[in-house]
Amino acid sequence: MTEPARVVPAPLPDAVRASLRQTRATMDAADAWRGRTLNLIASENVLSPAARSVLDSDFLHRYAEGHPGARYYEGTKFIDAVETDAAAACRRVFRAGWADVRPVSGTVSNEAVFARLVPRGATAIAHKVATGGHISHDRMGSLGKRTDKILPWPTQADGYRIDVDAAKDLIAREKPALVTFGRSLFLFPEPVAELADACKSVGARVLFDGAHVLGLIAGGCFQDPLREGADVVTGSTHKTFFGPQRGVVLTRGDDDELRTAVDRGVFPGATSNHHLFSLPAMLVATLEVEVFGARYARDVVANAQAFARALAKRGLPPAFEAAGFTQSHQVAVDVSAHGGGREVATRLAGQDVICNMNLLPGEPGKNAMNPKGLRLGVQELTRYGMGPAEMEEAARLLVDAVVHRKDVASDVARLRARFPNVLYAFAPSDLR
Fold it and tell me: Domain range for residue 121?
């Protein structure tokens, strides 16, 4: 590519040149640093080189409101082709009758559904933030824009898993317009099948927010909410589903009224132009999930369980030991004895182990900025090819840093350096 001709001014002002160079240096430093860290943020993942290779295109500059073939702008024939293929790939991967790939995030997907399925002031049921619910399900988030009558799911004695019998009574008594399953701290499958009939009997729609577990659902290793009775599944495409940062809405496709409502919720309700540059990367990632997703999902869950067992063995037991710790990519750990979630997460970041503080079941919501726990996810480490043996190493390093206050950054870098390549992926040459 030739250097663009400068119009004016020339030469560049010193301050501008310095800022440009600093920007490049900052990006290079970020890439170098991430290459020597263990990333345990449960809401992140990495793109394959193949998916990254299609991010830089003319799509960066363009607009495309509406649906392929029925746009409000001309000049979209190539965009239409990619969007059509991406939606078709999602339908195959999730065995969905209908898929909308226009939302730019999981929260935007939720916004679209809430806006059309929750009449103003209607009753809804969702998880509280303190029991793992996402902020978009809360009064302060997207659902709260529609109603302040958001009732919490009743829980079992562990303060986390849904009490099915009590939930049936709640649904029958309150007759909600919408019930929402799915969480931000998402360790175990939700009882969708057990509660679907109760919801149907009162006319309640069922939303499953699969943002965190979308890749596990696609890989057949968690649960299958559309077959279990969910009307709508929303999700983020950049967590266990290892695409770019976008969202998706799925339905079985057998309910025209529902499909039309949600379609209008997506556009014009929640999106206009929809970040077209990342659609090709989403298509590539979805095809990778179609080919590699079952193996990846199995490995993620196996790694999370191995990681949890290794932490427990070293004296830092995760929550829900009696239930097997986890059936997802996540592990929740109480670190209140070691300074609390905020302090420990900060200390770990200083050792190049990246995670986030998190409320644990039973904590009051007021503790959100200084909670007891950490939320840990192994989906990115898995995509770099780490397995149960490396989960043992990662657990040892984390315990050494948290419990024994050791400096582990050099050991972290050595472990990470052994796994430089993204797996479960196409090569860029596969696109040519």
Answer: 58-287
Residue 58 parent element (H or E): none
Q: Are residues 229 and 306 in the same domain?
A: no
DSSP-H helix ranges across 41-94 = 49-52, 77-94
Nearest to 86 by CA among 46, 45, 54: 54
With respect to residue 29, please indicate whether it lies within any of the assigned structural domains: no
My answer on whether 200 and 90 are in the same domain is: yes
**pLDDT, tens digit only, all 432 positions of the chain:** 566 666 766 789 999 999 999 999 999 999 999 999 999 999 999 999 999 999 999 999 999 999 999 999 999 999 999 999 999 999 999 999 999 999 999 999 999 999 999 999 999 999 999 899 999 999 999 999 999 999 999 999 999 999 999 999 999 999 999 999 999 999 999 999 999 999 999 999 999 999 999 999 999 999 999 999 999 999 999 999 999 999 999 999 999 999 999 999 999 999 999 999 999 999 999 999 999 999 999 999 999 999 999 999 999 999 999 999 999 999 999 999 999 999 999 999 999 999 999 999 888 777 888 999 999 999 999 999 999 999 999 999 999 999 999 999 999 999 999 999 999 999 999 999
- d(CA 387, CA 288) in angstroms, rounded, equals 20
Q: Are residues 115 and 87 in the same domain?
A: yes
